[in-house]
Amino acid sequence: MIGDGVNLAARLESACKAYSAKILISEYTVTKLKGTYRLRDIDKVIVKGKTTPVGVWEVLDYHTDETFPNLMEAVNYFKSGVDHYRKGSWDKGIDAFNECLALNPNDKLSESYIGRCEQLKAEPPEGEWDGIWVMTSK
């Protein structure tokens, strides 16, 4: 198989580990979904070999109350954290991600975002922050 879609799928598959996720899909797949799914918008990234950002979503439907307690409430706090992160409001983002962790202490992605926010606070990006993460590995 060849093509941009296949390349993007391969990049997202390998990004699962970095995002502590089992199922990642692109914004292109999200727009094609029929029905209701539990998803969370987790990032806008530029994958290796590309210059245009793509939205990345995590599929959460396979979770149970045991594997992801307080899922919908945590997803709402996560969304708030990502919104603050994308605006460059690092402290507000950290607060929201900490609320996620209070609801689900096993949410590794919230921990990762706290680390990103702390890194960006310590070393602010040059120029205008656009909230886009550049993936450096395949």
3D structure, described in words:
With 138 residues, this protein is of the alpha+beta class. It has one domain (4-134). The chain has helices at 4-18, 27-32, 71-87, 90-103, 108-122, and strands at 24-26, 39-46, 54-59, 133-134. The chain contains 5 helices and 4 strands, in the order H-E-H-E-E-H-H-H-E. The mean pLDDT is 92. The two termini are 17 Å apart. A 4-stranded mixed β-sheet has the order 1-3-2-4.
Which structural traits does this protein have?
single chain; 138 residues; 4 strands; 14% strand; globular
Topology:
Layout: H1 4-18, E1 24-26, H2 27-32, E2 39-46, E3 54-59, H3 71-87, H4 90-103, H5 108-122, E4 133-134
Parallel strand pairs: 2-4
Antiparallel strand pairs: 1-3, 2-3
Helix pairs in contact: 3-4, 4-5
In brief:
By secondary structure, the protein is of the alpha+beta class. It contains 5 helices and 4 strands; from the N terminus they run αβαββαααβ.
Kindly estimate the percentage of residues that lie in beta strands according to DSSP: 5-15%
> Terminal Cα separation, in Å?
17 Å
Domain module count: 1
List unreliable stretches of 5+ residues: none
Name the helix and strand elements from N-terminus to C-terminus, one letter apiece: HEHEEHHHE
Main beta sheet: strand number and arrangement?
4 strands, mixed
What class would the helix/strand composition place it in?
Answer: alpha+beta
Mean pLDDT: 92
How many β-strand stretches?
4
**Gyration radius, to the nearest Å?**
15 Å
Tell me the helix content: 40-55%
Q: Characterize the overall form.
A: globular
By DSSP (H or I, 4+ residues per run), the number of helices equals: 5
Strand line-up across the major sheet: 1-3-2-4
